[in-house]
Structures are given as C-alpha cells and as structure tokens.
Design a protein that fits this description.
The protein is an alpha+beta fold and 283 residues long. It is built from nine helices and 13 strands.
Length: 283
Amino acid sequence: MAVVELTEDNLEQYADFVGMEDIENIGREYYRGVVITDDKDDPLSAGIWELIHADKEEMDTQARIVCLKAKNDAEADKLLETCTLMFVNEDVKHSFFEMPVGKKGIKREILKNAGYEIKEAESSEIVCTIKDLLKMPPVRAGRPPSYVQELGNLMIRPFRRGVMDCVLRSNRELMEDLGSIPMSWFEQRVSGYVEIDGRVSGFLLLHKTPAGRLKVEVFTALGNDVKKDLLHLMIFSLKQAEKYYDPDTQVVIRRRDEDVKKLTDYILPDVKGAKVLYGERAG
C-alpha cells in the first residue's frame, strides 16, 4: 500500500478512478488530493479537498471535501485516517462535505466513526439548463449595454487589475485562488466583464468542466450601481450561452454565501439543490 499525493504530473494516471470533474482542479493553489494504491499502483481510494481561508490569519482554515471514493469499507477507513493526518499538517480546524443521497459511496457509519456529524440537507449547488435560465423575464426582455463585454476581448493586465480589485474590495465570498488562477481557466465567450471609464469593475466568470457543464465561478461587481451591473452581466452571459451552446447544457451555480442564495431564490424560485448528505466535524 502507498499514499500518493495528487499532482499535475500524475493526475492523468488516476483520472479514470477519481473522475475528471474533480481531479481537474489538482494544481490549483488551494486544492489537495491523495490516492491510496495497492502494490501494483492501482488505486484503492481517493480524496480531494479545497482549503478555505488558508492564508487569512484572522480565520480558521477549513477543508471543503469535494471527493471521497473507496473500493470497500476497509479502504474507506484508511482514506479517512490519511485525510485526517493531512488536515492536521495543514492546520485545518473544520472539514465538511456534501454527498448525493442514494449515490453509492462511503457508508454513513464509517463517516460517523471518523467523527463527522451527518444530516440530510439541500445541496449548496443548484443545476439548471441554459434553456431554463433564458425563460427568466429580465433575460428575455433584457439588452446588455456596450460596457459589458465578453472575457475574450480583455487583455491580461486589466483582467488581473480587475480581479485584484474584486479580491480586495468585494464583500462577497469569492474563489479562494481567484488572485492566482489564469484567465484561460474561464470560458472566454460566455464569461463577461463590466468596464467603465477604462476600469474593470465587475465579472461573471464561468468555467467549462470536462463534462461540458458551465460552472459559475465568480459573480461580483464593484461599481456605483452593483445590482444593475450584476443584472446586465447575467443577461449578457446568457445571451452569449444561447449563441454558443446547446440549450440543454447544464449550468452549475454554487451558492457560496447567503447573498448568493437569496439571489438564486429570487431569480430561480422553482430550482432547488439536490438532496445531499452533509457532514462536518472539527478538524
């Protein structure tokens, strides 16, 4: 048995076992992953997590577990023990995960034995289609102004300056590695930005996953009329998506904080997150 840390150099070797939707994040600044293998280097279990608040001295470091996979109960126990040790090394004070209800995975009893409190909850992510989103009245009637443009039109320097303004000034929960992730990570035609008087002051940034889903990663604005800019960004991105993607393409929105949840509840009142098992523990 060997414990293998996932890196950009070996992720393709274990992609079939872990799944590309999760393993593609390995290499990003705050993502960590581990695979436990047998003597033939075949994977027996795997875990991937994102560190949250790792560089914020005034806040405790958390681990948001995005993948837990094991071939059997014994391997699940070993995986959770290994993750716990790695969390200690990263000074993680709190870890949590969501696991779809009914999906074959690590048993509740094993997770509880590892110290996790388990409950059923609504997922923090909602999934809808481009077709669903285009039905919203503001989108059907809306026409974005010329100061909202597709990301592909933006040069690297103003992108980085706009991103840093968001990191420093936005009161929304943002991607942990927004300050370091390359512009190319985001879909260039459907992602949009607001630029007024030569200054970028808002973004709606989407990432196209290996499965072809569009994932909303950043949705924020800093201008004098934030609500209007956010509305225009949303209309722009959906009009772009209508041009370039199949209407049944899935759009994933992660509700990072209560403000985002309130917004999605307002604009998508009939769309709810899937039922999940939510687990959390200290450390």
